[in-house]
Amino acid sequence: MAIVTRGFTGRGRRDVNLPPGQYLTEDFPVLSAGPTPRPNLDKWQFTVTSETGQRFGWTWPELRALPSETVTVDLHCVTRWSKLGTHWEGVSVDTLLADVDTAADFAMVHAYGGYTTNLPLADLLDGQAWVAYRYDGEELDPEHGGPARLLVPHLYLWKSAKWVRGIELMHEDSPGFWESAGYHNYGDPWREQRYSGD
Predict the structure, then answer these.
(1) Residue 67 sits in which domain range?
(2) What percentage of the chain carries pLDDT values higher than 90?
(3) Is residue 57 part of a domain?
(4) 72 phi and psi, to 5 degrees?
(5) For the segment 102-144, what is each residue's pLDDT rounded down to a tens digit?
(6) CATH number of the domain bearing residue 175
(7) What is the number of other CB atoms lying within 10 angstroms of the CB of residue 92?
(8) SS (H, E, C) 57-124
(9) Edge-to-edge, what's the strand order for the sheet holding 55-59?
(10) Which of 26, 64, 141, 190 is the most buried (most CB within 10 A)?
């Protein structure tokens, strides 16, 4: 069912401070389950839905008009590669949730193509997560999640959903796509939480 495209070969250096079991790469590997969605920007929308059903939405021009931030972060993929010092631009999730009255503790992130991933809401707040649309000074390529992807760099990269289209706030946790397939529910690379039971 899942098709994994591997945009890299070989192993990188190990002489830097990396999470356990990771190797350093200079490439930006492309791994996806299934085909790359290419949503029409004229119809693209990002929504936040509270646990009470209240909806907040932004079109592509509206999202791009929000205050943006540039961040430099390290990325860690569950397939064991790490890429250090990556440069991104996007909108902080704090900005998107600023007007949302919520008592939720969890979030389900939804993406074009049907992908989902779950996170504690606390991991999306306080400057820890962005809806990113530029990488290395350029518009984000579709293969890397463009036009926009979630960026949650303190967790394994599968939590940074590509082709993001919305966040659903929830009182109770529920597993997303990879979590339902046996990946760890949280995914902390420093604790090597790759799979259920780790």
Answers:
(1) 23-30+41-191
(2) 85
(3) yes
(4) -120, 120
(5) 999 999 999 999 999 999 999 999 999 999 999 999 999 999 9
(6) 3.90.420.10
(7) 22
(8) EEEHHHHHHCCCEEEEEEEECCCCEEEEEEEEEEEEHHHHCCCCCCCCCEEEEEECCCCEEEEEHHHH
(9) 55-59, 45-49, 164-170, 106-111, 116-120
(10) 64
